[in-house]
Request: fold
Amino acid sequence: MNVLSVASEIYPLIKTGGLADVVGALPLALKAHGVATKTLVPGYPAVMSKISNPVTVLVLADLFGETATVLAAEHEGLDILVLDVPAFFDRPGGPYVDQAGLDYPDNWRRFAALSKVGAEIANGALPDWRPDLVHVHDWQAALVPVFLRYQLQPEIPSLLTIHNIAFQGQFSAIHFGALGLPTHAYYEALEYYGTLSYLKAGLRTSHAISTVSPSYAEEILTPEFGMGMEGIIASRADSLYGIVNGIDAITWNPAGDPLIAATYAGGTLKRRQANRQSLCAYFGLDQDDGPIFSVVSRLTWQKGMDVVAEIADEIVAMGGKLAILGAGDAELEAALMAAAMRNPGRVGMTIGYNEPLSHLMQAGADALLVPSRFEPCGLTQLYALRYGCIPVVARTGGLNDTVINANEVAIAANVATGVQFSPVTAEGLRQAVRRVIRLYSDQKLWSAMQKQGMKSDVSWGRSAVRYHELYGSLLSKGN
Ligand code: ADP
Reply:
């Protein structure tokens, strides 16, 4: 089976969040099922500089006013198609925002271009390769099924995966004319309260919709989590699937991770101590036995980082330490940094994006705080499970599906892998931290939980089976 995947990020070429991890890992996991995936991504500078020996496979003379070239390259086992349009993608900022953190004003065109080329390739534009199915990710690629339906009309099934429904690709309706779609596409698909919504259009036109955990698939049917899309999702409920993400078990493996101070496994947990020491040294934390709570996150309201800032001093007062790695909202960065300044030796913070350090944090911290207000799947808690770092998570979305709460029954049955709490308030997190400190004081129980977490199946194995089945059912419906 040949699959065209279209996305705005792919690890290890370009990453701002979990989307990239999934887009990079799924093709590798699906290979074992006979699925050959090619992934179309924009040619940002980071992508262009990392690929080697690219071959031109397609030239489009007029893609929204620009000449576009599609390059094919292989990178670490992935077949990549790069959409090279310097006017759209050769910029010094991030994939979506400029150096000042502001959305590029032409994002509507940049990602319409990605989708348009995705649709052309899905329709057989490449000379030597034709996909059987197209799998698109998030709003940036959500116009692929729209161009397919309204411009090209081929017989190819499409799957749209929602990684985070908070991001919807909403733009002024004045751009509709430039998309080159017939007027009825506006009313049937794109129109959203007088604006354009790329995500809504994809939800309307793709053959199936999936999201990255079963709990989130349920949640987005409700106004609280659907963020205005709940009605459209409900109208597609018979084509909605929830498949939890896995992790790249080679990159994230404490037994062989070159980015940590000492490798270890479930039977050699004592060796974690060296990572703990390195972590304390890095963040300037006291080398004592107090439990180290960590945060590796975008610093946003979604992630509940305001609540962490609010109780940081109390974590310290309870004997804990806090190590924070993240970047995001300036106010949250400042509030967390202020907590670090107030608590030298007890709270440490690094602002920025640091992939190697994120590995050491999973290997050296005792517990990972993930107090998200909503969380489609979440990856950091999966890494934490694998690294024997106890995840302390809000009871929502994928966090609910992947962490087994240490209640009395779960502890007695020796199946607990972490701590869940609700609601996401200072009081909710405070009580969770109290529970963690109590659990930590019983080191036998703690290491039993660590070992149980390390045994959890967080690989892509089972999820790849589910995607393969879903692809298969879409193909058989099309025939
Ligand atoms: P989201 O995609 O919403 O940001 P996920 O938990 O699904 O959340 O994925 C976040 C990914 O980004 C994980 O791989 C995590 O380790 C990584 N990450 C987040 N912030 C940082 C950071 N400051 N430095 C390094 N890695 C980070």
